[in-house]
Amino acid sequence: MPVLPDRVDRDAPEFASRRGALLELLGEIDTQLALARAGGGEKYVERHRQRGKLLARERVELLLDPDSPFLELSPLAAWGTTYPVGASVVTGIGVVEGTEVLVVANDPTVRGGATNPWTARKSGRAAQIAEENRLPVVNLVESGGADLPTQSEIFIPGGRGFRDLTRKSAKAIPTIALVFGNSTAGGAYIPGMCDYVVMVKERAKVFLGGPPLVKMATGEESNDEELGGAEMHARVSGLADYLAVDEVDAIRLGRQIVRRLNRHKLGNAPAPSYAEPLYDADDLLGLIPTDLREPFDPRDVLARILDGSEFDEFKPLYGPSLVTGWGQLHGYPIGVLANARGVLFAEESEKAAQFIQLANQSDIPLLFLQNTTGYMVGKDYEQRGIIKAGAQMINAVSNSDVPHLTVVMGASYGAGNYGMCGRAYDPRFLFTWPNAKSAVMGPAQLAGVLSIVARQSAQARGKPYDDEQDRQMRELVENQIEAESRALFLTARVYDDGIIDPRDTRTVLGLALSVAHNNPVQGRRGFGVFRM
């Protein structure tokens, strides 16, 4: 297979400036990640420790195999909202007893681990990943249920989480609950609907209604232990399958359960050996511009993430704004679609549709590297059928059955986001680089469109147009769209599965491909009607 060349000029002034700008963005991300890891803050963390309890991330670390990776998902959910960064829950994929599992850990230092609207959204995305990739789910439970002041946003959609647990069980996807503390009200249904339940003695409290609610509802006097203590559930109700003496013992029992699950991957194994890329991933920081108007060649990215830097390009002379071709990543075959010059023309769209069909015929997963301003507009392009060509590409993406992985490297605007498998097209995983931006169009273009429409409207009514007011409007809109298109804004709303350091792209994609192969990889053999 052809080897991609090293074309990076590390001594060029733009290399250093780009590297500096990306490191600054990564520093901002690290600051926000530190806030998420701090949970509810020093006061509540210390109070939790004084009770002899482990923190959520400490529980996760003990659960996972030593020195194994943990791919945290949506770590910055709720950033920029009135809720704490991280949304009071830790979700991610790790390895337990040699088996890949999805972990969901409530953070009891944040309002007792209560579920707010962003918790529900983040947990819901994690549940979707587990089901699509046939991952056992381990819930590390300590939650007071719904955050009551926001119940109107949680109660009705929140029921989906319990439904998802039962559907996983029906599909032979094991679900496990390790209960460390309170699991009340809606939280009680997590152990209630899991296949396996471990409760910590004298710590776990699982009940639909606590003593005050029972007193109000029935007049009955009772205490926590009688209503929902771990020993009661282990000896009387039968809800607990295992009674742990402490938190460490609960985690030991959880690992024991996973060991006995008899899980096997249904997809093909990776190649037994493969070469690392020939070039240093650190170069990526100097390759990627933070000014999205500056072009860069995605082949230079591929040279730093594909095995042996080998890439067999498909149709290299046709539709050159989109690079397509075949490679291997951590031993797994992969088909690549990567934007080279932003705009998608009819030729690029037709090329993409054909390539996606070929990948499905060969049962090869697809990697979409986004840096697109969308499909080309203009009278000539409309008359030549850009809508039909774009529809072919979107049709192919929509109906493709092989796993899709998406990385937003730069711009992701307009319908280009759709054609390159954005969030609405259900990629198995979607990750974003810190410089990336996504919106219906660029800030200046959007503000300009609104200005033209407002000016035409005033002229149609025969009224004068205020140019100063127009300038202020354009500035306001540009600032708003600029803020709303940033990677931090998008990841906060769980529109991706996390912002990643470009240097980690190969590792993250390797983990994602491994997870995707828990299921058989089989492409679609028939597509819908393609408008020709």
3D structure, described in words:
By secondary structure, the protein is α/β, with parallel strands linked by helices. It has helices spanning about 15-35, 40-50, 55-65, 115-130, 150-170, 190-195, 210-220, 225-230, 230-235, 245-260, 285, 300, 345-360, 380-385, 385-400, 415-420, 445-460, 465-485, 485-490, 505-515; strands spanning about 70-75, 90-95, 100-105, 135-145, 175-185, 195-200, 205, 240-245, 310-315, 320-330, 330-340, 345, 365-370, 375, 405-415, 430, 435-440. Strands 1, 2, 3, 4, 5, 6, 7 and 8 form an eight-stranded mixed beta sheet that branches. Strands 9, 10, 11, 13, 15, 16 and 17 form a seven-stranded mixed beta sheet that branches. It has a two-stranded parallel sheet with strand order 12-14. The chain is globular.
Layout: helices, strands, pairs:
Elements: H1 13-37, H2 42-50, H3 56-63, E1 70-73, E2 89-96, E3 99-106, H4 117-132, E4 137-143, H5 151-170, E5 175-184, H6 189-193, E6 196-200, E7 205-207, H7 211-218, H8 224-228, H9 230-237, E8 242-244, H10 247-259, H11 284-287, H12 298-302, E9 312-314, E10 322-329, E11 332-339, E12 343-344, H13 346-362, E13 366-372, E14 374-375, H14 379-383, H15 386-399, E15 404-413, H16 414-419, E16 429-432, E17 437-439, H17 443-460, H18 467-484, H19 487-492, H20 505-516
Parallel strand pairs: 3-4, 4-5, 5-6, 5-7, 6-8, 11-13, 12-14, 13-15, 15-16, 15-17
Antiparallel strand pairs: 1-2, 2-3, 9-10, 10-11
